[in-house]
Fold this sequence. Notes:
heterodimer, A: Rossmann fold, 6-stranded mixed beta sheet, 7 helices, B: alpha/beta, 13-stranded mixed beta sheet, 10-stranded mixed beta sheet, 8 helices, 21% helix, globular
Amino acid sequence: MALGHDNVLYVDRLTVGVGGKIVLRDVSFSVGRNSILFLLGPNGAGKTSLLRALIGYPNYNVISGKILFDGEDITSSPMEHRVSRGLAVAHQIPPKLTGIKARNLLAEICRRTGCSVDEIADELEINYLLNREFGKGFSGGELKRIEIATIVAQRPKLAFIDEPDSGVDIDSVAIIARALRKLINVSTYGSIAIITHSASISKYIRPTHVCVMISGSVKFCGDSSILDEVFSHGFKGMAE
Amino acid sequence: MDLRGWRSKIAEEAIQGLDRPSPYGVDIDVSSYATEEARYRIDVDSIEKIGVDLKSKARYLQVNQAYFEYLSKIPGVEVYKLEDYIENYPDEAMEYVWRLLRPSMDKYVAIGALRGMGGYFIKVKKNTKVEDPIMACMFLSSYGLQAPHNVIIVEDGAEATVYTGCTIAPETVGLHVGLSEFYVGRNAKLRFVMVHSWNRATHVRPRTAVNVSENGEYISYYANLSNVKTFQAYPRVYLGSGAHAYLASIVLGVDDADIDIGTAAVLENGNGGVEIVSRNVARDSSRIVMRASIVGRSGRGHIDCRGLMLSNESVMATIPELHAKSPNAILTHEASIGRLAEDEIYYLMSKGFTRDEAVGILVRGFIAIDVKGIPDRVRSYIETIERLTAEKAM
């Protein structure tokens, strides 16, 4: 897999350890321009670890390999730099933030990017959550929508969305899919990466590329037909 | 008893307390603060920084024990310097002054009784509802003792907010002993906001007692948002039948501050209620002891004490006490001490904040208390206090 001009993100043989344990081994994949990448894999495949390593969690140590984003080697860059360059992640389960109102956190992000909290809230139908403490007592769907709202507020060049469709009611999936489409539209490169194990979001957004991750490694990548194969054979069948 | 006899009695009692240390906190030699400099300076910037509006319609300003300015343009609200009130209304004064505090309680109250000067007397007359906050400021501009004696009376059915700011000039060495006796009448409501901003050489020993009559309500919000050398206070609120109180405090310990702060409430007979909420942040090598006590004969009481440690050198303890005097009292408490969760810091960093910004946001969230039943204007003061405290905590 070579770094071409069409690649927004290029991950080359990345091996990552956390607390002395290898969580990602020789991971390689890329996200091109105008690409909707689905990163599929069963629970425990290392999808969330990959996302944290990409955004630069300090306790995720890159042992070998490279991460190139937007033409720059960010393998050793601090998280702050990666985010400022336009990389963003939507977490599978955001933490509950005591005493911090959802509105205030979104406003802090919007202060940097010039977005409108109310517009984002309308879009994700979270107006009624704005004056509540961030994440506290939220349902699964509400948590996803508020998390996606923070990403929409960030206006990233490329967003990685972790499990937007797990533990979420059908109505929320539709709202989230609409917001993800907007993220694709505002992305400088018209791209997004969606991490999912159920792929139920594919009912609303069809991938252009699919990679399958199993046991901390990306096993193979291809076009959207892989999605149908996963639905037919499951991850176990694919691995075999 | 005439005024002279009353004053002599107070002084005699106080002398008995001069050698009595407080059961809590660091013991201070009060004799070295028994004199104060006559000169004073008013630092308007420092006063405004703690939210006091010196142009408010009802206000009291005291600098050291030398300068006093007070007025009220609000109908139904009286503001005096306490000595002036006592001189003009001695019979009424003897009903309220030194009724909730004992002059011999400890050496700090005693020195305040013997050497203190000034303090505000605020009365909100029956059924008067005041929207604008009544402002008070105690400013210590030079070495010595400042021991004002404050009295607030909110008569039956009345409603008011009193905002008090106490601050000091930089590098001034001083002992501040604020003596406060508050009376909330039947069906009356007092919201009391107090902001302290001292320096690293100040010793502070406020002594406060509040009596809330039948169906009255007392909401108190205290914040210490700067350095202090030593601080000890354990205000006590007595709640009559059906009376309610919400007592919140935000305390920040920086440098080598030694802080021992608590709140006590006594629920008398009747269906009253009290909630004591404290948020304490320890930085550097500060030491904070958080106390809370509820004594209940009936009604409901809850203590919620939380401590946040921002340094490996700081020390913190929480000591909640519940005393039920009958099975009709339902009393609960929750307490916790810990550090900020790294996962929360990383989460915010992944949203584009620097580590310092992320910590600032989380600290501000930690100290944010949702005080119910307060006017928007007071809420905006509290939001400012939260912001300033979070900034100082960093």
